[in-house]
């Protein structure tokens, strides 16, 4: 959610309409999204920032232990998308898309996939 | 079980006693199993509502739907088990005919590596440095091979030991390919079931089980990467379809695990790496993006990529080479679209949505540009040369003779499509057409797969392997659609009959009424078509049904027949052991290769270096256990060119090369006596070309052709040809075998000049029974500093008798044996 602001400013269309659009976006987000999806969103945000920091470190400071960077960054990205997948499966409006996977199953899937992901990432570190 | 579906004899039509209230979607497989060829006739998913239907032939009506369901699943299971059995059984020709032996070239290396794995442990295998290969360079084996195959075999070996079945690792290796072929049939069944009906799945499983295109790489003893790769390919594709359909991260993970295993096992994994993104991309372009796709793709890509990077040979390739960039790009695109979708759901404004869409396109273009810049700046490696040769078939011949020289890298000849796939190749387009007709998400996958692989299979012979599964699947879909249409007993109602049917409708809910109605139908349509004198019924008549179904069954039988014949005659030769027929019809085993390798193992120093063309490197290392200069790994083109140069130059030029590389023995394969066409003289031009690539001044291809541009070994051969080491070693003393008669080379059909060939720098050390393998010992420098040429002419001038006796010890067995088996032609 957080990355959306900077990129839509340059095209200075009817800015008032845009402004109001943002307002509705924020309002809708606060009112319609259930708490647990917000929790997931905050986790997503955290992982995103962590990934940006790792990448900045790699670009600006050093890439020396490249294996460590690849493992760390890989697990960050992986966790992010798995979480985003989970979010899609528990967010409102999911029932139209996920007919065969219940919300509980989605969480179990998420856990299993994360464990495998981190096993591989961990193996990659050393 | 109900007494049904087992009529071993009679017409196919008799085998379909199905009751009227067919459960929807059940699509019963009523199967007439008459041979290993599974000849299953898919029964139609009838109409949705149990209403009165006209039937072309009577069906028993007293069987309950649960019975039918149970019988169906039981039959399906049994058939699948039998198909697996057939898939394994049809690959055992080589073992039965010869023995449990490892085939061909690459498998010998894999076998050797597996032995290291199970005897010395995993870490030793992982860090294995092999000083005997690529002498004097050596090879870091652990990081230059795909370990998946050996690890799989090792795990099976350990498992078998665990359950107290101590099996020799060689037997595990030999039987690995047939075993996995059985599993491939199973995954193909699952995959096809997702695409179409279970009956199509069974057909597909039967097809892939015995299709020669796949058998060619997976007979018993063909212990190569492809043996397990097709199973992994189908497994990955099946779980991908499953993941995409359900949107479950678990299936995405399973796809990734299959993918990871595939990466560890075969370089062809790049096909999956590009297939899945392409499928996802096409779905996006078709406006079919949804969160299931997002979850499936993301979980596959992330876990799959990080697991593929565990393989030392692959390592950072997934983020550094162009082949993998499509997957990364689609991954990024999906993130973008998913994010925009979330925002879009929250904000209804139209302008805003337009802006979002523009944003997606912009980011996509920018990141694509970034990719291009990275490629040109060198951070991302451009496509590998082998990849270019997929687009330009002439590329390899010009730039990389080493790749072009491999016969399986040649473009496919048209007949081989029929040879490898028989009738499937004709049903293949029909199956793709059916996929177009329904065009669900998963069927788009088949279409893409079919298009890509059809192209690749046309470009490279070895990629026939990749097209085989999709041909089997598509052909099975087409076949089952056909059978379905012609076995389905229901006759669609025409206009006037429809009214009649609506009159029956209310009654049909009661079962008794249905039976009555069915009986009524039965009496009405006991015979249709010509038999009933109702010619106007057209395609729904029994006669047409019978005609089509019997023709289709005939196709199936012919297919089985063809597959068995191809497998037994073309693909079951281990190529280290040859077989021929004696005049009286009995089999004659030609075991020259093992004879010669065993001779090396027994009669040479442990560290003596054997030089041969690279084809035989792995075999020498595996069977003779001696260091080799070059082998089938072909990683060092210069080294191979050096060997090529030594073989193609005259003795004066070759001798220093041999000495510099500490070569003790030179091994050549010669088929002229027996008519074995895969010998070194036939491969000679590639040696010349590869050598020319490195030393264009010293070796020129045109010097080896006669004036008229012919490749001749008889009188017309050019001096360069006649003086080349290869020519001399091949035909040395060849004419003596014919005792005055003209010496006939049976491969090239030419007469070898009977002027004796003189070798100054080499001694003949061993010649196998049928002269296929000839081994020469490289002479050391003369102890008193004379040139070897001078030495031999000195000795030759002195007394001819002695020179004959000096080398006869080693030669007696070879030449004598040769004479014994083929007296004087």
TrEMBL record, chain A:
The keyword Membrane applies. It is found in: Endoplasmic reticulum membrane. GO terms for biological process: protein N-linked glycosylation. The chain crosses the membrane at residues 43-60, 66-86, 106-125. Keywords: Endoplasmic reticulum, Membrane, Transmembrane, Transmembrane helix. The keyword Secreted does not apply. It comes from the Eukaryota. Pathway: Protein modification; protein glycosylation. One of its GO terms (cellular component) is oligosaccharyltransferase complex. Signal peptide: none annotated. Subunit of the oligosaccharyl transferase (OST) complex that catalyzes the initial transfer of a defined glycan (Glc(3)Man(9)GlcNAc(2) in eukaryotes) from the lipid carrier dolichol-pyrophosphate to an asparagine residue within an Asn-X-Ser/Thr consensus motif in nascent polypeptide chains, the first step in protein N-glycosylation. N-glycosylation occurs cotranslationally and the complex associates with the Sec61 complex at the channel-forming translocon complex that mediates protein translocation across the endoplasmic reticulum (ER). All subunits are required for a maximal enzyme activity. This is Dolichyl-diphosphooligosaccharide--protein glycosyltransferase subunit OST2.
TrEMBL record, chain B:
One of its GO terms (biological process) is protein N-linked glycosylation via asparagine. It comes from the Eukaryota. The chain crosses the membrane at residues 74-96, 144-160, 172-191, 197-215, 227-243, 293-313, 325-343, 355-381, 417-436, 448-479, 546-566. One of its GO terms (molecular function) is dolichyl-diphosphooligosaccharide-protein glycotransferase activity. Keywords: Endoplasmic reticulum, Glycoprotein, Glycosyltransferase, Magnesium, Manganese, Membrane, Metal-binding, Transferase, Transmembrane, Transmembrane helix. Its EC number is 2.4.99.18. It is an enzyme of class 2 (transferase). Residues 75-474 form the Oligosaccharyl transferase STT3 N-terminal domain. It is a multi-pass membrane protein. It holds the Pfam family STT3. Residues 8-18 have a biased composition (Polar residues). Catalytic subunit of the oligosaccharyl transferase (OST) complex that catalyzes the initial transfer of a defined glycan (Glc(3)Man(9)GlcNAc(2) in eukaryotes) from the lipid carrier dolichol-pyrophosphate to an asparagine residue within an Asn-X-Ser/Thr consensus motif in nascent polypeptide chains, the first step in protein N-glycosylation. N-glycosylation occurs cotranslationally and the complex associates with the Sec61 complex at the channel-forming translocon complex that mediates protein translocation across the endoplasmic reticulum (ER). Belongs to the STT3 family. This is Dolichyl-diphosphooligosaccharide--protein glycosyltransferase subunit STT3.
């Amino acid at each position: 959610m957080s990355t959306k602001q900077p990129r839509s400013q340059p095209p200075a269309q009817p800015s008032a309409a845009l402004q109001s659009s943002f307002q509705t976006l924020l309002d809708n987000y606060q009112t319609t999204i259930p708490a647990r999806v917000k929790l997931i969103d905050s986790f997503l945000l955290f992982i995103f920032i962590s990934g940006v920091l790792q990448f900045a470190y790699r670009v600006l400071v050093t890439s020396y232990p490249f294996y460590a960077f690849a493992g760390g960054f890989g697990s960050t990205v992986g966790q992010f998308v798995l979480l985003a997948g989970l979010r899609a499966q528990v967010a409102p409006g999911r029932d139209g898309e996920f007919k065969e996977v219940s919300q509980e199953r989605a969480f179990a899937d998420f856990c299993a996939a994360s464990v495998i992901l981190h096993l591989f990432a961990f193996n990659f570190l050393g | 079980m109900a007494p049904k579906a087992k009529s071993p004899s009679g017409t196919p039509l008799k085998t379909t006693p199905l009751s009227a209230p067919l459960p929807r979607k059940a699509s019963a497989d009523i199967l007439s199993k008459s041979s290993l060829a599974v000849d299953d006739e898919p029964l139609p998913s009838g109409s949705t509502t149990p209403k009165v239907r006209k039937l072309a032939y009577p069906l028993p009506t007293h069987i309950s739907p649960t019975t039918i369901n149970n019988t169906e699943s039981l039959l399906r299971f049994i058939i699948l088990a039998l198909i697996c059995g057939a898939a394994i059984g049809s690959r055992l020709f080589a073992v039965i005919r010869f023995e449990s032996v490892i085939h061909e070239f690459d498998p010998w290396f894999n076998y050797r590596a597996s032995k290291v794995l199970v005897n010395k442990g995993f870490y030793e295998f992982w860090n294995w440095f092999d000083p005997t290969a690529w002498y004097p360079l050596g090879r870091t084996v652990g990081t230059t091979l795909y370990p998946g195959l050996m690890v799989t075999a090792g795990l099976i070996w350990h498992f078998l030991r665990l359950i107290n079945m101590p099996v020799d690792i060689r037997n595990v290796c030999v039987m690995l390919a047939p075993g996995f072929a059985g599993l491939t049939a199973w995954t193909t069944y699952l995959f096809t079931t997702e695409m179409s009906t279970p009956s199509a799945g069974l057909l597909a499983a039967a097809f892939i089980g015995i299709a020669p295109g796949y058998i060619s790489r997976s007979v018993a003893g063909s212990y190569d990467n492809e043996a397990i790769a097709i199973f992994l390919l189908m497994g990955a594709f099946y779980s991908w379809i499953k993941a995409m359909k359900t949107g479950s991260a678990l299936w995405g993970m399973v796809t990734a695990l299959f993918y990871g295993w595939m990466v560890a096992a075969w370089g062809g994994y790049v096909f999956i790496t590009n297939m899945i993104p392409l499928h996802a991309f096409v779905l996006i372009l078709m406006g079919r993006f949804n969160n299931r796709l997002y979850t499936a793709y993301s979980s596959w890509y992330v876990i799959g990529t990080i697991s593929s990077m565990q393989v030392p040979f692959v390592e950072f390739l997934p983020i550094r080479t162009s082949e993998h960039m499509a997957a990364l790009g689609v991954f990024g695109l999906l993130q973008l679209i998913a994010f925009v979708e979330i925002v879009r759901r929250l904000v209804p404004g139209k302008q805003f949505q337009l802006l979002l869409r523009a944003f997606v396109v912009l980011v996509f273009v920018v990141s694509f540009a970034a990719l291009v810049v990275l490629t040109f700046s060198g951070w991302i490696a451009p496509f590998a040369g082998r990849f270019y040769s997929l687009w330009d078939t002439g590329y390899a011949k010009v730039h990389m003779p080493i790749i072009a020289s491999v016969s399986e890298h040649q473009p496919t000849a048209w007949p081989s499509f029929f040879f490898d796939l028989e009738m499937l190749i004709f049903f293949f387009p029909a199956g793709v057409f059916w996929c177009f007709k329904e065009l669900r998400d998963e069927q788009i996958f088949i279409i893409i797969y079919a298009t890509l692989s059809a192209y690749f299979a046309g470009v490279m012979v070895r990629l026939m392997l990749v097209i085989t599964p999709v041909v089997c699947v598509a052909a099975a879909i087409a076949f089952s659609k056909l059978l379905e249409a012609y076995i389905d007993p229901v006759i669609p109602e025409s206009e006037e009959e429809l009214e009649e049917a609506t009159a029956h409708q209310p009654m049909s809910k009661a079962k008794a009424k249905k039976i009555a109605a069915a009986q009524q139908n039965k009496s009405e349509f006991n015979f249709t078509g010509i038999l009933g004198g109702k010619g106007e019924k057209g395609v729904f008549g029994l006669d047409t049904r019978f005609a089509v179904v019997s023709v289709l069954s005939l196709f199936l039988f012919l297919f089985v027949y063809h597959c068995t014949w191809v497998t037994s005659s073309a693909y079951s030769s281990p190529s280290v052991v040859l077989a021929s027929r004696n005049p009286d019809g009995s089999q004659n085993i030609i075991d020259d290769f093992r004879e010669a390798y065993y001779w090396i193992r027994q009669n040479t120093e442990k560290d003596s270096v054997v030089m041969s063309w690279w084809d035989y490197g792995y075999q020498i290392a595996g069977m003779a256990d001696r260091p080799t200069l070059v082998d089938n790994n072909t990683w060092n083109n210069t080294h191979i060119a050096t060997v090529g140069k030594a073989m193609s130059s005259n003795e004066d030029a070759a001798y220093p090369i041999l000495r510099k590389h500490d070569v003790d023995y030179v091994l050549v394969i010669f088929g002229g006596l027996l008519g074995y066409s895969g010998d070194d003289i036939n491969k000679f031009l590639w040696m010349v070309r590869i050598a020319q690539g490195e030393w264009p001044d010293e070796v020129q291809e045109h010097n080896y052709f006669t004036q008229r541009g012919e490749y001749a070994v008889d009188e017309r051969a050019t001096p360069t040809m006649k003086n080349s080491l290869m020519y001399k070693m091949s035909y040395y003393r060849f004419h003596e075998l014919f005792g005055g008669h003209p010496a006939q080379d049976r491969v090239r059909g030419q007469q070898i000049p009977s002027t004796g060939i003189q070798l100054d720098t080499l001694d003949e050390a061993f010649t196998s029974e049928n002269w296929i393998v000839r081994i020469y010992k490289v002479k050391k420098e003369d102890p008193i500093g004379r040139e070897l040429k001078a030495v031999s002419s000195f000795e030759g001038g002195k007394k001819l008798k002695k020179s004959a006796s000096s080398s006869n010890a080693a030669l007696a067995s070879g030449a004598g044996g040769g004479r014994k088996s083929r007296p004087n032609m």
